[in-house]
What does this fold into?
Amino acid sequence: MGEEATEQFLMTCAAKAEAMDGLPTGILPFVRQLLGLPVDGDAQSWLASRCTDEAIDLRAITLLRDAMAEAGGKKEQERQLAIRLWLSLNPQERAAALPDVHLAWATKSTGAPPKPTKGLLKALPDYDFIAGSLYEWSSDLLGKAVLFEYADLFAGALQAGQAFYYRYADAKKLHGVVDFDDMIRMTARLLQKSDMAEWIRYKLDQRTDHILIDEAQDTNVAQWDIVRALASEFLPAWAWSPSGTGHCSPWAISNRQSSAFRVPARIIMPMRAPNFSRWQRHRNSRLAICRWTAVSAPHRRY
It folds into this structure.
């Protein structure tokens, strides 16, 4: 990650206040759980426990090795030697050498099991099945090893992002300022969760007939929470009207190539998402104005 990407990541963390505040004390176990990995222990020990004689399919590996040694060509002889060497190692060494033995039943070019020769099929009729099973087994273990590495990197990045978020928040408090994300978050909280929310919505409802959302494709969930809070009390009036002419009319202006129309609609009214049945074209062909009406017409894109 370069300097620009790092700065962008840190600023993204700074904007996600709820996510940063919600991170647990142990970030690494949290990330591992998200990725479906064991929470405790290190990756190498976990992988070594999967490479013991009791954990591996020793019979299948031995059958494949013997068939290669008996009826294989030069490449198969090299592969059976790799298998023989791997089996002589202890579990910790096997874990470290797993990528090498994986190539005994997978090609470097395609990554898939190699096509067996007639001699191999004669020596081991189930060669394809056995090689395929071993390929899936080692691929799964190697994939988990990559996830362990990613979990370490991602947990470290989240720790750095959280630390930056706290420093950034302290700096804003020190200077008595808020940024754009703070304004959106505070407004959404004020309209939804504060003690004054009902009174504020009541005062706004007295003077709000239409809500226009420009550049709708660039909005986020928090911004749509604000729209929902402003329009929720009016939705039944226009949602159940066959003509779509109710008291409050939410409109959105967005790039006509964007598919973001559908997502905000479900956010605004999750119990019954309005369909976009009425469309009017703007003079600029790249823009479209859509009026949301909760009728049974299918979604359309123009």
In short: The chain has a mean pLDDT of 78. Residues 1-177 form one domain. The chain is about 55% helix and 10% strand. The beta strands are 210-213, 249-255, 275-281, 287-293.
